[in-house]
Amino acid sequence: MSIKNKLSLIFTVVVLIILVANNAIHYIRSKNNLVNYNEREISLLAEELSYQVETAKEGSLYVENIIGRELRTASIAIRNSLPANYEDISNEQLIELAKEVMVSHITLLAKTDNDIIGVKSSDPHEIDMSTKGWGYWYDAFQQLFDEKPVDVGIGLTLEDYWAGPIEVASSNPDHTDKWGYYYDGTTNYIINPYLRDNEVLEFEMRFGPGNVMEEWTNNLEGVLELTVFNPKNFGKADEVVHLNGNQYIRISSLPYWYGTYDYMNEEVDSEHIQMAVKSGKTTSYIDTLNNHLVQKTFVPMAIDSDDPYVIGLTYNYDLIQNELNKELKEYILSSIAIMFIVLLISMVFSNSITKPIEIIIDHVNDISKGNFDKRLRLKRKDELGNLARNVNALSKDLETYMDDLKKSQEVIEYQAYHDPLTTLPNRRFLQEKLLDMVEKSAVNQSTVAVIFMDIDRFKHINDSMGHGIGDTLIKMISERIKSCLSFHDSVVARHGGDEFIILLNDSSEQRVESIGKEIITELKQPYYLQGTEVYIGASCGISLYPEHTKDLETLIMYADSAMYEAKKQGGNKVVIYRPNAHINKRLQIETRLRKAIIEEKLEVYYQPKLNAKTNEIIGVEGLARWNDEELGFVSPATFIPISEETGLIQPLFELMMRKSMIQMKEWNDRFAKNMTVSVNVSPRQFLDSQNLVDSIKNAIESTSFPSELFEIEITEGTLLQNTVDTISVLQALKKLGIKISIDDFGTGYSSLSYLKHLPIDILKIDQSFIKDIQEDGLNTEITDVIISLAKSLKLKVLAEGVEEEYQKEYLLKNQCYVMQGYLFSKPINAIEFEMLFLKNEK
Ligand code: C2E
Ligand code: MG
Ligand code: MG
User: Fold this and answer.
1) Please, what's the b/e burial string for 367-386 (b: 16 or more CB within 10 A of its CB; e: otherwise)?
2) How would you class 173 by CB atoms within 10 Å of its CB: exposed for 0-12, middle for 13-18, buried for 19 or more?
3) Which pTM does this prediction carry?
4) Which one of 54, 80, 123, 126 has the minimum C-beta count within 10 Å?
């Protein structure tokens, strides 16, 4: 995910989390607040309601008392209309009288022995009705008959009069009545007028608490129901009264007194009602009733009185929930709006970071493609601005660096392909150019000519006049060659030393020959060097592509050999290559040999050197063996002279030395021996003596071969070539700690005094003298001399080419113990040598 998206996402998620948390907290707090507020409201409401109920109750009691008084007035009117003895009164008379005084009925109560009963009445149910079981009512009747003021603690007591509270009629529980009882001692009965049902209940309906509650329920939002519970009876079994053959529930025992009870939940409500009364505190709960989520609140009232009651308020909780939902919706909407704004801001913000980064990345990509000239233009003062400035500085530095690099590359390339002295193309350039030209000529079917040119007598001038002059001369020569070729499609290169090669495109043999001659003529003109007139000559060899060969290496070699031929013919000549079987073979060997050396295909064969007295192998001579894929086995007698002529002898020596050192080190380590190994050094190698010394030093170091076990064999002829030089080279070699032996000793003409000064270790008697030793011990003079010479010079002596037992015997007898020859072993490969060694050790 990109930083841009990541930043926006992180911002948004963080804000989202904050908003959700905030909303949740807010929601919970709102809910609590709302609920608390509601509870407080409901409590206040209940208090207010209780006050109203109380007031209404008082009001209705007042009105009830007025009715009580009216019933007394009616009672007095009735007494005045009736005789003193009830027996003189008929029920019908009472019916008429009731109508007259506007009461529902009139009953006359009289004493019996142990009861007070209804004796006459306009209501047939009341006749013969016993009142003994009526509790305080009965007490009140007795007090009236005793002409005492009634003090039963309930109802209205006036003179000779008592009005009971409104109650269900026990004589006929279908009705609710208000009774008055009058007795002034003038009659034998209590006058009992009463009002029934509507007349009683109407005022209750108009002035009583029920009316107040209904009004509240209708007018207060959310209030579903109001109930005034009777905690004594609510939730309990009905308190049924059995009186006068009837059964009913007294008003005071009703489970609730006012209001409605439609949201019924008796068990739970009863618990809460009891709890409220007991604790004197409001309680509430939430539940679903009649498909409404409601909150029911119970407020205890008048708990210290005899008749405590509980106001129940059923509140529509959906209103709270709706309120909360509304609030939540508003929050969510505002959150979405905030989120959107945050998203927008975070996108703008992250864009302000990532946009410049993108610009910088594009710019860096540009730089990586090598466009250094552009500059970043970020007008910012922050880290990104800093980065942009640094990138600019970097790209500027890189530009300079790349320019320098390009220049130095050009210089290196130029140097790699040009000769520093003449500024002419060098050998490498030539090879590539030749390949290029040949490829083109193959397409155009044209020819390519090679002129191989070597300056005659240059070595002489170099040696006699010094290298400085030699260099000046080479420069002049190259200028002259160039001037001759200015009109030709050609390339001239310095091949090395005093050799030049010219490549000519599409030229006939005659034309190339005449150009060669032209150059020779030009070069023959005198040169003035340090005031001296100098003359040189040049030999040119020409080969043609594809006429002579299609192989480029061979093509140059052919031109070289033709040049060689020109030299042979006295120099200052142009010779065109002519196929010659002998030269060809030699060239083929040279080419193959070069390849074999590079690919390390030459093998080392080991010829043991023994102490013939003990028959112990004390060392080996490493001899080169070459079995070529094309040429088959080539004898050292053939390839050694060729390698000497072509300069391949030094690399060949290095290969032999390294291979035999590695092999001998392994044998010595494995067999715990100190065998020596010798390698032949050719006289040619002394021409570059420094190279020879360095190469031996390197080989010893790189293979960690003990120097005292390494030996070089040089022929006596080598010693005689260049005496002063050779001595110093031998001394340098001795310093490396190696041994030097003189090979084929006796065939040259070394003087004794001379030998004495040489740092040599071993004389190898040439095999021709060993061959001379005859069975009868004759013809041994030279061998004898060499042995005694070695002895007197304190040199070791070794006899080469020992083939016969008698030769060995003779040599042993004459104290020449170290021998090498077919008698012991031919030169053999490493595996064969190992077998021979192990057999010999047994
Ligand atoms: P050399 O150094 O004198 O080596 C001894 C030659 O005599 C070897 O011939 C060997 O096989 C041969 N020889 C040894 N014992 C006997 C014997 O009992 N009877 C006869 N008839 N011959 C014996 P090879 O290997 O053919 O080498 C010939 C020459 O080639 C060597 O003469 C050496 O001068 C040269 N040569 C060989 N390998 C190398 C080399 O790696 N570097 C140089 N510069 N020259 C080498
Ligand atoms: Mg040898
Ligand atoms: Mg030899």
Assistant:
1) beeeebeeebebeeeeebee
2) middle
3) 0.43
4) 80
What torsion, rounded to 10 degrees, do the Cα atoms 637, 638, 641, 644 define? -120
Q: How far apart are CA 404 and CA 334, in angstroms?
A: 64
Strand, helix or coil at 552?
helix
Q: Which atom of ligand 1 is nearest to the CA of 823?
A: 18
Ligand 2 center–CA 621 separation, angstroms: 7
Point out the ligand nearest to the CA of residue 610: 1
- For residue range 225-245, list pLDDT tens digits in order: 989 899 999 989 888 888 888
Q: What does the pLDDT look like over 14-27, one tens digit per residue? A: 888 888 888 888 88
Nearest-CA residue for ligand 1 atom 12 is 801
- What average pLDDT does the segment 147-163 reach? 93
Report whether residue 623 contacts ligand 1, using a CB cutoff of 6 Å.
Answer: yes
Reported confidence tier of residue 722, pLDDT bands at 50, 70, 90: low
Ligand 1 pocket check for 680: Cβ under 6 Å: yes
The token pair at 811 is 């040599």
| Residue 156 CA, distance from chain mean position | 99
Judge residue 85's burial from the number of C-beta atoms within 10 Å of its C-beta, 0-12 exposed, 13-18 middle, 19 or more buried: exposed
Measured between alpha carbons, how far is 300 from 817 in angstroms, rounded to an integer? Answer: 142
Query: Quick check: 582 pLDDT over 70?
Result: no
Residue ID of nearest Cα to ligand 1 atom 23: 801
Of residues 811 and 550, which shows the higher confidence score? Answer: 811
Q: Find out whether the beta carbon of 126 lies less than 6 Å from any atom of ligand 1.
A: no
pLDDT the model gives residue 282: 86
> 624 in ligand 1 pocket by Cβ < 6 Å?
yes
Does residue 62's CB lie within 6 angstroms of at least one atom of ligand 1? no
Give the separation between CA 236 and CA 232, rounded to whole angstroms.
8
Q: Taking all residues of the chain, what is their mean pLDDT, rounded to a whole number? A: 89
Q: Across residues 808-819, what is the average pLDDT?
A: 96
